[in-house]
Amino acid sequence: MEINLVTKEDLIVFKAEMLVAIREALTKASEDGLSKKQWFRSADVRRMLGISPGTLQTLRINGKLPYRKIGGSMFYHASDIEKMLKEGQQYG
Q: What is the pTM of this model?
């Protein structure tokens, strides 16, 4: 049985690759006209960031991504999403 260990360098490379992917997703969203919106629903945020509902929930619970709840829907401000990305916050 082969054991694969994840090193710190592996994690640094992974983080860099994720940031590139996120920036590309935001650029695509911008080209699609989504950047004109100020507020995004959970599904929009998950699609832009390529994350699962559970990861988005963890970001909310840990206070890494502020949100507003209106009725049964949660909304995220574009500036909060961008701020989280610029600060290099880890998901989860």
A: 0.58
| Residue 91: DSSP 8-state | P
Backbone torsions φ then ψ of 54, nearest 5 degrees: -65, -40
* Burial track 47-77 (b if 16+ CB lie within 10 A, e otherwise): ebbebeeeebeebbeeeebebeeeeeebebb
Residue 86 clears pLDDT 60, i.e. is over it: yes
State the SS3 of 19-82: HHHHHHHHHHHHHCCHHHCCEEEHHHHHHHHCCCHHHHHHHHHCCCCCCEEECCEEEEEHHHHH
Q: Is 81 exposed, middle or buried (0-12, 13-18, 19+ CB in 10 A)?
A: buried
